[in-house]
Amino acid sequence: MEQDTISAISTPIGEGAIAIVRLSGEEAFSIANRVFKGKDLTNVDSHTIHYGNIIDPNTDELIEEVMITVMKGPKTFTREDIIEINCHGGMVSVNRVLQLILREGARLAEPGEFTKRAFLNGRIDLSQAEAVMDLIRAKTDRAMNVAMKQMDGRLSELIRKLRQELIETVAHVEVNIDYPEYDDVEEMTHDVLIEKASYVKKEVHKILQTAKQGKILREGIATAIIGRPNVGKSSLLNKLAHENKAIVTEIPGTTRDVIEEYVNVRGVPLRLIDTAGIRETEDIVEKIGVDRSRQALKEADLILLVLNGNEEFTKEDAALFEAAAGMDVIVIVNKTDLDQKIDMEAVNQAANGAPVITTSLLQEQGIDELEEAIANTFFDGELDSADLTYVSNVRHIQLLEQAESALTDALNGIEAGMPLDLVQIDITRTWELLGEIIGDNVHESLIDQLFSQFCLGK
Ligand code: GDP
Ligand code: ZN
């Protein structure tokens, strides 16, 4: 572990009051010791906390009053020596502490570098490392919980279990090929192969099904509010944003300065798209009206289609339903406080099974029902079940999809009576693909596993 010592401000999630400057590496203790007045940090027990002052050794100036945590590797997150300096005095003094640490020889950590070290030093596997990243980007508590679960290794555990199944299958097939004269290994009939491969395929499929929810939790449900002018789109947007604490994010690296708005509806993050369009003055909206709605439709995961209950159901309304056909739609019949002129039968028919919610945004009626419909559309009320393992990482999803298709190939091969060594190639491929999720060194461990798993001299 001959890595330089890195440092950065790493404030714990959910605890805004204190800020932590973290150091990791061979010189963590000696660098901290040079700026700490209180105790000799190179000479204290591991995993202890010490009170004292940070001073500039060049000027003897007091920088900050701190608590320092001393943790000796390898029982640390990075497996290196770690120092955590807990500061209380706000961002300015925290920054001064960091500057001092850097001046004394630490290097500013790159984003994710502590986690990268944890992975490189074998403390966590790849999927856990990626979960740490997801955690940092999580936009709601629920998204955070999913990342947390993945970080404590639930996905890894599941993947390991499936790989175990596959490796045993491969081992049996291998023996069958190499030692056809052994009667007891002949048990590996096509039927057993089919059973194992089908089982793993089913499990992989289940994990993939959670991917949709995972993506949503991390990136938000791309939501478009559409409807004719004056039906209440802006009012709905404002209501959702107001009640649910909108988070406005600027996305760097885009040519236009796109601003996306997130609202958190019962733990489900909605990413409202084209809200700028909705907020433009009414005459512009009127001018572009339905055309603009159609454009927003293309990018959306969820459509909130707003109708005016105080008016007839128009041809334009019907056109919007047609444009949204096949997508997740929630119909909102607004302005229930006024005379209801809309033909609800026509609305329900157009909705074609999609939920229809009646609201008065003006009088704040029906908002609860709407929020419930939004949550249900994506999670069918199942989200709270504690043991769902969500996959939210694009790389993981791709690998799982490839694994599923390799298993399909294997199963087709078996059915078609292909020789076992050819089927085995697909099974091994699946094993490797799943291994890439947790970052295993594939080929060597395959060999190791084979021998440790299956002992002919039993
Ligand atoms: P948009 O053009 O679809 O964005 O519609 P707005 O949200 O700008 O609303 C148009 C007008 O309808 C505004 O004057 C709103 O105050 C009004 N409005 C919105 N919702 C309701 C409602 O539930 N009841 C009544 N009576 N008026 C509403
Ligand atoms: Zn408007």
TrEMBL record:
Domain TrmE-type G span(s) in chain numbering: 220-379
Major enzyme class: hydrolase
Transmembrane segments: none
CDD domains on file: trmE, TrmE_N
EC annotation from Swiss-Prot or TrEMBL: 3.6.-.-
Positions annotated to bind Mg(2+): S234, T255
Residues reported to bind (6S)-5-formyl-5,6,7,8-tetrahydrofolate: R22, E84, R123, K458
Localization per record: Cytoplasm
Keyword entries, A-Z: Cytoplasm, GTP-binding, Hydrolase, Magnesium, Metal-binding, Nucleotide-binding, Potassium, tRNA processing
Binding site for GTP: 230-235, 249-255, 274-277
Binding sites annotated in the UniProt record for K(+): N230, T249, I251, T254
Free-text remark on how the cofactor is bound: Binds 1 potassium ion per subunit.
Pfam families referenced in this protein's UniProt entry, alphabetically: MMR_HSR1, MnmE_helical, TrmE_N
Required cofactor(s): K(+)
UniProt cross-references to InterPro entries, sorted A to Z: G_TrmE, GTP-bd, GTP-bd_TrmE_N, GTPase_MnmE, MnmE_dom2, MnmE_helical, P-loop_NTPase, Small_GTP-bd
SUPFAM superfamilies: P-loop containing nucleoside triphosphate hydrolases (SSF52540), TrmE connector domain (SSF116878)
PROSITE patterns: G_TRME (PS51709)
Family per similarity comment: Belongs to the TRAFAC class TrmE-Era-EngA-EngB-Septin-like GTPase superfamily. TrmE GTPase family.
Binding partners and assembly: Homodimer. Heterotetramer of two MnmE and two MnmG subunits.
Function text: Exhibits a very high intrinsic GTPase hydrolysis rate. Involved in the addition of a carboxymethylaminomethyl (cmnm) group at the wobble position (U34) of certain tRNAs, forming tRNA-cmnm(5)s(2)U34.
Name this protein carries in UniProt: tRNA modification GTPase MnmE
Lineage of the organism: Bacteria, Bacillati, Bacillota, Bacilli, Bacillales
Gene: mnmE
